Amino acid sequence: MIECLILGAGPAGYTAAIYAGRAGLRPVIYEGLQPGGQLTITTEIENFPGFAEGIDANQLMLTMRQQAERFGAEIRSHTAVRADLSQSPYKLWFDDGSMEECLTLIIATGATAKYLGLDDEQKYQGIGVSACATCDGFFYRKKTVAVVGGGDTACEEATYLANLANKVYLIVRKPYLRASKAMQQRVMENEKIEVLYETNTLGLYGTDGVEGAHLVHRKGEADERQYDLPIDGFFLAIGHKPNSDLFREWLQTDEIGYIMTQESTPRTAVPGVFAAGDVADPLYRQAITAAASGCKAAIEAEKYLTELKAAAQ
Ligand code: NDP
């Protein structure tokens, strides 16, 4: 029986493991498909406190992993494929056919940024393509970038990037923005941002990184026009998908799929089951906020186990 099972190996999962390990809970982390989490698709991290000169994202995740192991965390490389949270101990099945029971479960499975599905997004990932302006915007100071999307995230990212870049194009597929009025106004009032309505991206080009995007205006209409837009960076902001599918049957999620937790704690409605990091955070989605919620989840897990043991005596 595992006392504390942690699903996901991003900042939330590793931080939960560090705290749970130090509390003597002998946590077991299942890394899943993307060990290190979303950070491993960016390059350098400059906004994680404690690293004055910045740190390579993969190095940061490796260090967190080693820190978790130092306190006794066992790291397994499988992915959960099924869950039964109907009663404690909770059951999880993995892609190698194994099944484990646990007394506490910390879900730190993160969220996945949505991409358009172009081959070029893969080709230029980390060398001009990003799904996180806060992570990578700094590398585009005084450059020209494009943001794809017309929602609140896209407007927020465009506004953020406009503080750094010389020019920001907002590529919107509809003739209007979906974002809230306040957010739209911020975009409209910003001289550096130019909105390209009714525009879709066909591909990207560049030799050692992104140098431009192939765009199409009013695709399929009589006045369709294809053209190339020179840019240095291409930012996706078309939404995130929280990795919560496995738990929808058991836990309350919002309409997008983010796991609902209680009053700014990582507690879910199921006792002993906690959600930490981006899988429960539609708003901040930062490594540091994920780490903080992982810490809270481990503290909650320890408290729950102490109460469980006291009740059993
Ligand atoms: P949304 O789903 O609201 O918006 C996604 C945007 O991306 C839409 O404009 C959509 O276009 C566009 N899009 C989706 N798929 C494609 C595609 N394949 N090609 C081109 N464009 C595409 O996601 P957000 O991440 O913006 O927001 C998620 C939630 O978080 C919302 O409820 C939002 O209000 C909230 N939020 C709030 C913030 C705040 O209050 N500060 C900040 C950020 C988010 P279309 O309109 O045509 O469907």
Gross morphology: elongated
CATH topology of the largest domain: FAD/NAD(P)-binding domain
Reading off the top of the CATH hierarchy, the class of the largest domain is best stated as Alpha Beta
Number of helical segments? 7
Mean pLDDT: 95
Distance between the termini: 19 Å
Question: Can you characterise this structure?
Answer:
- The protein folds into 2 domains: 183 residues, FAD/NAD(P)-binding domain, CATH 3.50.50.60; 118 residues, FAD/NAD(P)-binding domain (3-Layer(bba) Sandwich), CATH 3.50.50.60.
- The protein has 7 helices and 19 strands.
- The strands form 5 sheets. Strands 1, 2, 5, 6, 7, 8 and 19 form a 7-stranded mixed β-sheet that branches.
- Strand 7 and strand 8 form a beta hairpin.
- Helix 1 runs parallel beside helix 7.
- The longest helix is centred in the C-terminal third of the chain and has 26 residues.
- The model has no long low-confidence stretch (mean pLDDT 95).
- The structure holds NADPH dihydro-nicotinamide-adenine-dinucleotide phosphate.
- The site of NADPH dihydro-nicotinamide-adenine-dinucleotide phosphate has 15 residues, from helix 5.
What order do the helices and strands come in, and which of them pair?
Elements: E1 2-7, H1 11-22, E2 28-30, E3 44-45, E4 55-56, H2 57-70, E5 74-76, E6 80-84, E7 90-94, E8 99-107, E9 111-113, H3 119-123, E10 129-130, H4 133-136, E11 144-148, H5 152-162, E12 167-171, H6 181-188, E13 193-196, E14 199-205, E15 212-217, E16 225-230, E17 233-236, E18 240-242, E19 273-275, H7 287-312
The chain binds NADPH dihydro-nicotinamide-adenine-dinucleotide phosphate (NDP).
NADPH dihydro-nicotinamide-adenine-dinucleotide phosphate is lined by residues 116, 148-154, 156, 173-174, 178, 238-239, 282.
